[in-house]
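Table S2 (continued). Query chain:
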Amino acid sequence: MAPLSVESAMTKLLHTSRTIQRRNGVRPPEAKRIKHAASLLREGSPPPDAVGAGRQTTYLHFLQKLSGNSMVVLCAVGLGLSAIAIAREDVLLDLPHEINSTIAALDNPVLRRLANEYMGVAERTPPVRSTSDLENSPAAGPLTASHHGPSQNIDQDKVERTIEQRSSSKTNTGGPKQGIGLIGDVYELSLKDVQQIIESHQISGSILLTDTYGVNTTPFVTIPITNELTDRLISNRPRVSWNEP
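Corresponding output:
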């Protein structure tokens, strides 16, 4: 098998996405690949002395960088462990970024259906990240929370989200955080949008629940996300209001 390049991988993934959509599903060997990827993401790296541990760990780290379970499904079918395990380091670093920035061209309803079928919203072992990774990375990595369908309902009235857009991710250099006023445009999101946020792997900090004690407003949840995901969510969406300090 020839070593992978970013260009050849993207060509293969585009072709695989179209094939899966036209076929409206995957073949049994491809389904087996998806199940293996889902299992690896849930259980984490195998013991170091296990057979093939190094290859599987390389594959796991690659999958953990992908935005959304549908991209995991696509890469499991289109590339698989064998291709990723022998890829050069520069490809392993650059390819996830290329995939995540081309989701609009790669994703389709069949991939999303397969992601829900084989992976759900994902119970995942998060990647091991150093302090410098957490400070410099725009995303916090895959979520570890599980979702089991309608029985775990998000508030049916409205989910109030306030997204703080940061002009720079590295301007705050140490010291305790002070109270932060929220400034920016406000957009109304649907429950489908909320699920997209959960699956995106682009939550960039702690998820906060604010209890307002029922005084003139209802409790709300704040989910900090990356600028890249913000741009996708607000595209062609009307503003609800403007928040001023």
